[in-house]
Design a protein that fits this description.
By secondary structure, the protein is an alpha+beta fold. The chain has a single domain, classed as 6-pyruvoyl tetrahydropterin synthase/QueD (Tetrahydropterin Synthase, Chain A). The radius of gyration is 14 Å and the shape is globular.
Length: about 90
């Protein structure tokens, strides 16, 4: 075992809850960013479009920064649809 699943859950779920949970996820430059922020709405701004592929890359980066030995992140949208990101 490389890393205990409890540690992975703690890191990834903790990051997602702190940064993404109950927030509108928008791309930088989206005209709604300023409007929503002016209204005090919680917004998470991404450099790219908030696609499943980009969200997988975002989670990969967060896990890597936390020191997890990540090779790939798979983000399931449904039982049959999945996006994957592998690091360099």
């Amino acid at each position: 075992m490389v890393v205990d699943f409890a540690r992975i859950k703690e890191v990834v779920e903790g990051w997602a809850l702190a940064h993404l949970d109950h927030r509108m996820i928008l791309m930088r430059g989206d005209p709604l960013v300023d409007v929503l922020e002016a209204q005090g709405e919680p917004v998470f701004v991404m450099e790219g479009s908030p696609t499943a592929e980009n969200m997988a890359a975002l989670l990969f980066s967060a896990a890597t920064r936390a020191g997890l030995p990540v090779v790939r992140v798979r983000l399931w949208e449904s039982e049959t649809s999945m996006a994957s990101y592998e690091g360099p």
